[in-house]
């Protein structure tokens, strides 16, 4: 980001390639709809471009990026009349479970079991309180550690750690019920 701030356009391309997937998945899981996630995704990158001259490194770039995304989500939800409780796929979107390529040697019952686990995980993730889901997705998709999650969301490290711990515990408990 420092190189981009100082005028190296190729540096932005490297940042974008490195972080686009995790950021998009984070936004999609937080807002639940592909159209909204795409809009927020573009807004986050535009905010980053507009703020490049003012960028001062105080943490890892990923922490800064997810802080910008967190703030953009807050703005979005404040303007929304309601927040969907579960993510819904747009009509044009494929079911994410169908996009998973399986080993052709797997038996149909193994595929069915895998699909059930993925569906259950998606359901459990959507049922987490927003703050816990946000901490979990930042950790898993963004690769942020507890301190970086705390900085990105504006809470202390203990709060971020608790949110992440509770999220993992609820997800594990819900998946164990499936076994």
Structure characterization notes:
The protein is built from 8 helices and no strands. Residues 83-91 have low confidence and may be disordered. The chain starts with a helix and ends with a helix. The chain is globular, with a radius of gyration of 18 Å. Helix 2 packs across helix 4 (61-79), helix 3 crosses helix 4 (61-79) and helix 5 (108-127) runs antiparallel to helix 8. The protein has one domain (2-84, 128-178): PhyR, sigma-like (SL) domain (Butyryl-CoA Dehydrogenase, subunit A, domain 3, Up-down Bundle). The longest helix has 23 residues, at 9-31. It has 179 residues and is mainly alpha-helical. It has helices spanning 2-5, 9-31, 34-50, 61-79, 108-127, 130-142, 146-153, 157-178.
- In total, the number of strands is 0
Report the sheet-strand fraction.
Answer: under 5%
How many structural domains does the protein architecture include?
A: 1
N-to-C terminal Cα separation, in Å?
45 Å
Largest sheet: none
Shape: globular
What class would the helix/strand composition place it in? Answer: mainly alpha
As a whole number of angstroms, the C-alpha radius of gyration is 18 Å
Low-confidence stretches: 83-91
CATH superfamily, by name, is: PhyR, sigma-like (SL) domain
Number of discrete helical segments: 8
Return the string of H and E elements.
HHHHHHHH
For this structure, the CATH topology is Butyryl-CoA Dehydrogenase, subunit A, domain 3
The level of helicity is over 70%
CATH architecture: Up-down Bundle
Q: Whole-number average pLDDT? A: 83
Q: At the first level of CATH, what is the class? A: Mainly Alpha
């Amino acid at each position: 980001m420092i190189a981009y701030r100082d005028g190296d356009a190729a540096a932005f391309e490297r940042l974008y390639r490195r972080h686009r997937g995790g950021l998009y998945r984070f936004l999609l899981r937080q807002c639940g709809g592909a159209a909204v996630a795409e809009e927020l995704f573009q807004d986050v990158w535009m905010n980053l471009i507009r703020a490049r001259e003012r960028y001062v490194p105080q943490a890892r770039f990923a922490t800064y990026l997810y802080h910008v995304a967190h703030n953009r989500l807050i703005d979005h939800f404040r303007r929304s009349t309601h927040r969907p409780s579960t993510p819904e796929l747009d009509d044009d979107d494929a079911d994410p479970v169908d996009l998973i390529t399986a080993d052709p040697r797997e038996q149909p019952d193994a595929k069915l079991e895998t699909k059930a686990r993925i569906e259950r995980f998606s359901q459990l993730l959507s049922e987490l309180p927003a703050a816990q889901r946000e901490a979990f997705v930042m950790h898993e998709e963004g690769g942020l550690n507890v301190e970086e999650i705390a900085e990105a969301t504006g809470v202390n490290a203990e709060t971020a750690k608790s949110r992440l711990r509770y999220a993992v515990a609820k997800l594990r408990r819900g998946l164990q019920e499936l076994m």
